[in-house]
Design goal:
By secondary structure, this protein is an alpha+beta fold. 23% of the residues lie in helices and 43% in strands. The chain folds into 2 domains: 125 residues, Probable inorganic polyphosphate/atp-NAD kinase, domain 1 (Rossmann fold, 3-Layer(aba) Sandwich), CATH 3.40.50; 113 residues, Tumour Suppressor Smad4 (Sandwich), CATH 2.60.200.40. The strands form 3 sheets. A 6-stranded antiparallel beta sheet has the order 6-5-16-13-8-9, covered by helices on one side.
Length: 254
């Protein structure tokens, strides 16, 4: 039986029209199941682990990328082979584009049950499928994770150790680490400023690795698949864990 994990976004007023349409599709396609709602007492991880123990399948995250990532972490920690689905309620999120699903197509993708068992990466003890973004925290008056969603105008020094061998140091405004499930490699992008002909221009450094140790001076705050999880120093690597994911036809990986 299907198990749907609803986050706070699913209950927001501006999501109700889309959610009503989605639930109608679910009923029409015979995909009805149990529903769990995130609350102050029950986290996404709590709901997913409870559903896994009761052998619901698949488990479907409904809401935002951060909810999908929390569900992914719960199943990865259990080494579960229960398929994980995603119904995004916010358009053009990185995870929804990676999986090839949106609010209009996600339920149809669930009915088609195209399942890809994919490797996941690990960053600071949290599993992820898409990206890690590290930037400077904001001033104390602003919550540090709010800075993660804004353009950073200040530079910092990012120090990398790649595959336990190569060391590098760059001045950057932000560091992005993307995971490629197909090649099982990490792509590191450090966005900074370079001076050319006495003019400051955007400068992008790109390298690939299987394992990264990242330090920032000063300390950086890191967002993992939409969730503010940790700060530097942080170790990022390709893990040995694989999770079955329900994907759409427009997915951007194999």
């Amino acid at each position: 039986m299907y198990y749907y994990v609803y986050d706070e976004r699913a209950l927001a007023k501006d999501s109700q029209r889309a959610l009503t349409k989605i639930e109608t599709q679910i009923n029409n396609l015979g995909l009805s199941g149990e529903r769990g709602q995130v609350s102050a007492l029950r986290t996404v991880e709590d709901l997913v682990k409870d559903a896994a123990r009761k052998n619901y399948r698949p488990i479907v995250a409904v809401g935002e990328d951060a909810t999908f990532n929390a569900a992914l972490n719960a199943l990865a920690e259990l080494r579960s082979q229960i398929p994980l689905g995603y119904i995004p309620l916010v358009p053009k999120q990185p995870m929804s584009e990676l999986l090839g699903v949106d609010a209009n197509s996600a339920v149809v993708s669930l009915s088609r049950r195209i399942i890809k068992t994919v490797p996941v990466a690990l960053a600071g003890g949290a599993y992820f499928l898409s990206f890690v973004r590290c930037v400077l925290p904001d001033a104390p008056a602003t919550k540090w994770w709010e800075r993660l969603l804004k353009k950073n105008e200040h530079t910092f020094t990012a120090e990398f150790t790649l595959d336990d061998a190569l060391k590098a140091s760059v001045s950057a405004r932000e560091v992005m680490v993307y995971f490629s499930p197909g090649s099982e490699r990490l792509r590191i992008e450090a966005q900074g400023i370079a001076q050319h002909d006495k003019k400051n221009r955007q400068d992008l450094s790109v390298v690939w690795a299987k394992k990264i140790h990242l330090q920032g001076e000063p300390q950086l705050a890191c967002l993992i698949d939409g969730r503010p999880v940790t700060r530097t120093p942080i170790d990022i690597s390709v893990s040995q864990v694989h999770v079955p994911i329900i994907v759409g036809r427009a997915r951007s990986f194999e």
